[in-house]
Design brief:
Blueprint: H1 24-27, H2 34-46, E1 52-53, H3 57-64, H4 68-80, E2 84-90, E3 98-104
Antiparallel strand pairs: 1-3, 2-3
Helix pairs in contact: 2-4
């Protein structure tokens, strides 16, 4: 259900129409592997309006159809090219309660 929150308020709500915005420049970038472009597109479809993706690694691996090793290799490529940033956000006052975030570094004007 697209209106179900997963714990951090509205940040986890899926986009109403279940699609995302992708950069033509990134999709057509010949220096990226097809797998990296697919991962970028998947992250875009799971990201919120701030271009942040809070999906779990397992969700992203399942969506991509890649094995774990392939997934990590191509995500690393996207990070190295600064197309995405990976970091953790605190979910509450406890230091061990944090959520992995993938942020797309492309920006779309509104």
């Amino acid at each position: 259900d697209s209106s179900t929150s997963r714990g951090l308020g509205d940040v986890y709500k899926r986009q109403e129409n279940n699609y995302g915005f992708v950069s033509n420049e990134i999709i057509r970038d010949g220096t990226l592997t097809p797998e990296s472009r697919i991962l970028y597109a998947i992250l875009a479809t799971y990201s919120n309006q701030d271009r942040k993706c809070y999906s779990t690694i397992n969700e992203l691996i399942k969506a991509s159809g890649m094995c774990r090793t392939t997934f990590y290799r191509h995500m690393k490529s996207l990070e190295e090219k600064e197309i995405i940033k990976k970091y953790y956000e605190q979910t509450d006052k406890y230091p061990t309660h944090r959520k992995l975030v993938y942020e797309l570094c492309d920006r779309f004007s509104e």
